[in-house]
């Protein structure tokens, strides 16, 4: 849905910092993102379906209030789902529209403010010029950010003088449900016209945005097609119910319709929780096979795989309004499998060089790490190591030889350095005796190295 | 999008980071150690006023597992710490980091709990029995011990 990381604090720099709270409320407390397929717990809290199911796999209680309950008691919240979808779709434009920007002083277009709070502010700052009144307003509205930033719930400003004024401002904004004909004017970021702030937020922005998007391209809302499909299937409601003239509100209507048409799907049965302790391996295997799941790995892998699939399945078919089909679930399971159920590593011993060669071609760094894991114990795969770094070894030796040939008084240092390099290239400080144990194909390298050693030795003397 | 736990960890941690950066609580802070690895964080906690730890700043390491937030991060004091519920290598005995962990906790709540732990040690299950005993007996002496153990943080 939204791949960008957003936080509720995005609203702190807007003209309605209080939207911070709304934004926070629409987020899941587990993933801190907007609720995806929200479900209600018996204790009245709401989480993403997958988040809470995953949590319940670990401990059977509500993470907020620790109320104990079973996973089968989760109920999907269709309304919240649509609220969030509709909210997230307008959120970026909402933030843009509410960004505090210096109002362009254009007195002619601006009706004079007659209203209480603003006038108070202006008179306080003993200005008669309405141009500077604009500035004053600007100052107030920016300083409003600071107190709001102090903590999540506490938006009451400090008691210093300037913030007292802020407070008035704040209050006047908060109570602006009362019909007051004249108040702060703001410029619409889309059509550049000035409107009363209230009107701008409530209606004008939506209109302007839909108009604009229609002007460019009348893009159908994301879920519109699915919506139509479900309408066809489930209700006798004619499609033409949405008249052409309603196009401006198409997006809005789509979410409302989706909510009205939402109903729990019962084609698929929920997958039960299984107590694996009493089952033997082949029984578990059969269970997985009957669901068409992979049966690779260990018993532990099987159990984890089933549990994860059960979670995906139940979240998808019990909670989601728009369930994906089984194959998509299997794909999700597979990608989860890849990152979680790694096949047991047996890189050593019998695996031998051929395996290493394969690893080398696929990705040197990972196999390098695998080898390094056993570096200090006796399982260490010497041959593999030699093969892997053969190129580097021969290159280093070549370089060393070259440098020795063109030797100068500085050679001792150089060879020393090279010597170290060779060591490092091989295996961070392994002893020469160890190296000598390496047989086959390394003899040349070794002899050459000894040459280097001897030369270094001579130089030192 | 869903089901990718690894992605879920980093996404959530990014979100928390953003939130912490926006927060104005002065006495706590935290930041990932490395730009490429979001699972290791370093945090700083300032001791609460009116406690033997007031105005002292402590460094903390947080290591988030793959299964975060379903499992708690490993939290340790990096700075030397003389406290009933902290052992000599910095391990912390705090219920919310163990069995009382909940997926709704985050870095901020962890650091705040650590901060309050400084002022209100749980002396019933001490890791540092000497400190626990001294806390109940002689506050002056306790404070001296704390200060003797304390090391100023330079790099911050």
Automatic annotation (TrEMBL), chain A:
Residues 214-253 are annotated as: Disordered. Residues 276-310 form the SAP domain. Keywords: DNA damage, DNA repair, DNA-binding, Metal-binding, Nucleus, Transferase, Ubl conjugation pathway, Zinc, Zinc-finger. CDD domains: RING-HC_ScRAD18-like. Residues 28-65 form the RING-type domain. Its EC number is 2.3.2.27. It comes from the Eukaryota. It catalyses: S-ubiquitinyl-[E2 ubiquitin-conjugating enzyme]-L-cysteine + [acceptor protein]-L-lysine = [E2 ubiquitin-conjugating enzyme]-L-cysteine + N(6)-ubiquitinyl-[acceptor protein]-L-lysine. Transmembrane segments: none annotated. Gene3D superfamilies: Classic Zinc Finger, Zinc/RING finger domain, C3HC4 (zinc finger). Belongs to the RAD18 family. Interacts with E2 UBC2, forming a complex with ubiquitin ligase activity. This is Postreplication repair E3 ubiquitin-protein ligase RAD18. The lineage of its organism: Eukaryota, Fungi, Dikarya, Ascomycota, Saccharomycotina.
From TrEMBL, chain B:
The keyword Cytoplasm does not apply. Keywords: ATP-binding, Nucleotide-binding, Transferase, Ubl conjugation pathway. InterPro entries: Ub_conjugating_enzyme, UBC, UBQ-conjugating_AS, UBQ-conjugating_enzyme/RWD. GO terms for molecular function: ATP binding; ubiquitin conjugating enzyme activity. Gene3D superfamilies: Ubiquitin Conjugating Enzyme (3.10.110.10). Its EC number is 2.3.2.23. The active site is at 93 (glycyl thioester intermediate). Pfam families: UQ_con. SMART domains: UBCc. Pathway: Protein modification. Coiled coil: none annotated. Residues 8-155 form the UBC core domain. Belongs to the ubiquitin-conjugating enzyme family. This is E2 ubiquitin-conjugating enzyme. The lineage of its organism: Eukaryota, Fungi, Dikarya, Ascomycota, Saccharomycotina. The gene is UBC11_2.
């Amino acid at each position: 849905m939204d791949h960008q990381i957003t936080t509720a604090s995005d609203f702190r720099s807007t003209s309605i910092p209080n939207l911070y709270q709304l934004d926070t409320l629409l987020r899941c407390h587990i993933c801190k993102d907007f609720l995806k397929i929200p479900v209600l717990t018996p204790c009245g809290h709401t989480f993403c379906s997958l988040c809470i199911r995953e949590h319940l796999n670990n401990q059977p209680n509500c993470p907020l209030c620790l109320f104990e309950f079973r996973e089968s008691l989760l109920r999907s919240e269709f309304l919240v789902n649509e609220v969030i979808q509709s909210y997230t779709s307008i959120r970026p434009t909402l933030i843009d529209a509410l960004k505090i920007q210096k109002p362009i002083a254009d007195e002619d277009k601006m009706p004079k403010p007659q209203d209480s709070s603003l006038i108070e502010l202006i008179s306080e700052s003993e200005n008669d010029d309405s141009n500077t009144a604009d500035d004053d307003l600007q100052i107030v509205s920016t300083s409003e950010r600071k107190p709001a930033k102090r903590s999540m719930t506490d938006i009451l400003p400090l008691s210093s003088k300037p913030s007292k004024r802020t407070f008035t401002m704040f209050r006047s904004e908060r109570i602006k449900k009362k019909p007051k004909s004249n108040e702060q004017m703001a410029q619409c970021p889309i059509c550049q016209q000035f409107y009363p702030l209230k009107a701008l937020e409530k209606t004008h922005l939506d209109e302007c945005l839909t108009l604009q998007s229609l002007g460019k391209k009348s893009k159908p809302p994301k879920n519109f097609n699915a919506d139509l499909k479900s309408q066809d299937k489930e209700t006798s409601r004619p499609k033409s119910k949405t008249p052409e003239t309603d196009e401006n509100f198409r997006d809005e209507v789509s979410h409302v319709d989706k909510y009205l048409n939402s109903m729990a799907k019962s084609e698929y049965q929920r997958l039960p929780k299984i107590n694996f302790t009493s089952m033997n391996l082949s029984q578990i295997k059969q269970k997985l096979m009957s669901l068409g799941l992979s049966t690779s790995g260990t018993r532990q892998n099987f159990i984890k795989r089933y549990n994860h699939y059960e979670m995906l399945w139940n979240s998808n078919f019990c909670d989601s309004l728009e369930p994906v089909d089984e194959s998509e679930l299997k794909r999700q399971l597979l990608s989860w499998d890849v990152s979680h159920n790694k096949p047991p590593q047996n890189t050593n011993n019998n695996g031998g060089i051929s395996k290493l060669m394969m690893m080398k071609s696929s990705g040197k760094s990972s196999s390098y790490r695998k080898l390094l894991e056993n570096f200090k114990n006796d399982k260490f795969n010497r041959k593999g190591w030699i093969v892997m770094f053969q190129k580097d070894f021969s290159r280093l030796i070549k370089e060393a030889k070259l440098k020795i040939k063109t030797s100068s008084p500085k050679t001792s240092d150089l060879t020393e350095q090279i010597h170290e390099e060779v060591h490092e290239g091989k295996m961070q400080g392994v002893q020469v005796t160890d190296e000598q144990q390496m047989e086959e194909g390394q003899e040349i390298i070794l002899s050459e190295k000894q040459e280097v050693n001897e030369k270094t030795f001579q130089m030192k003397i | 999008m869903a089901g990718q736990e690894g992605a879920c960890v980093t996404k959530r941690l990014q979100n928390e980071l953003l939130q912490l950066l926006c927060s104005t609580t002065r006495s706590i802070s935290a930041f990932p150690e490395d730009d490429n690895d979001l699972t290791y964080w370093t945090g700083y906690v300032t001791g609460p006023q009116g406690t033997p730890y007031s105005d002292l700043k402590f460094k903390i390491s947080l290591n988030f597992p793959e299964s975060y937030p379903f499992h708690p991060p490993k939290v340790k004091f990096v700075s030397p710490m003389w406290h009933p519920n902290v052992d000599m290598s910095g391990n912390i005995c705090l219920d919310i980091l163990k069995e009382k962990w909940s997926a709704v906790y985050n870095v901020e709540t962890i650091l705040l709990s650590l901060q309050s732990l400084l002022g209100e040690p749980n002396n019933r299950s001490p890791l540092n029995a000497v400190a626990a005993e001294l806390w109940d007996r002689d506050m002056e002496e306790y404070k001296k011990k704390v200060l003797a153990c304390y090391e100023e943080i330079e790099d911050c």
